[in-house]
Design brief:
With 153 residues, this protein is α+β, with helices and mostly antiparallel strands. The protein contains four helices and seven strands.
Amino acid sequence: MSDSNDLKNRTLTITKTLNAPIQLVWEAWTNPEHIAQWWGPPGMKTRVIKHEFKVGGEWEYAMQMPDSNDFIADGVYSEIVELQRIFSSANFKPMTEGVEIQSIFEEDGDQTHFTFNCVHPTVEYCKQQEEMGFYNGWGSVFNRLQEFLSSHD
C-alpha cells in the first residue's frame, strides 16, 4: 500500500481527557445551544445555522471573525453511535475542505476520554494542514469545550 493511501499518514489526532461525564460531553456535541457556546477558537461567536443530527443530516456553523465576516463550517453526518462516536464530512472554508472529522468518546467514571481525528484526502494535504496550525487551532477549541463542560456539571 502506498503512503498516500495509508490512513495513519492522512490523519491528525488529538486526544484529551475531559473532566465531565460522557452524557454531558455528548450533549455538548449534539445540542445546538451548547455547540454555539464552545465551537470555534477563543473570542469567536458561533451561530448554528443548520443542525440535522442524524446520519445523512447536514450541519452548518458560522463563526464571526474579528472583522465581522463569517467563517463557515459545514458537513454531513456519516456515522452516529450514541455516547460513542460522531463521524462527519467537514469543510472549513477557505482553509480546509473535504476532510472527515471523527469524534470518539469513551466513558471513564466521571471523565470522558475523547479522541478527535481529522482524516485528509492525501498525505500532502494532511501535512499542509498540520503546518497551518491544526493542533493549536483545534486544541484551543477543545480547551473551550472543557471550560464549557466545567461550567455545566
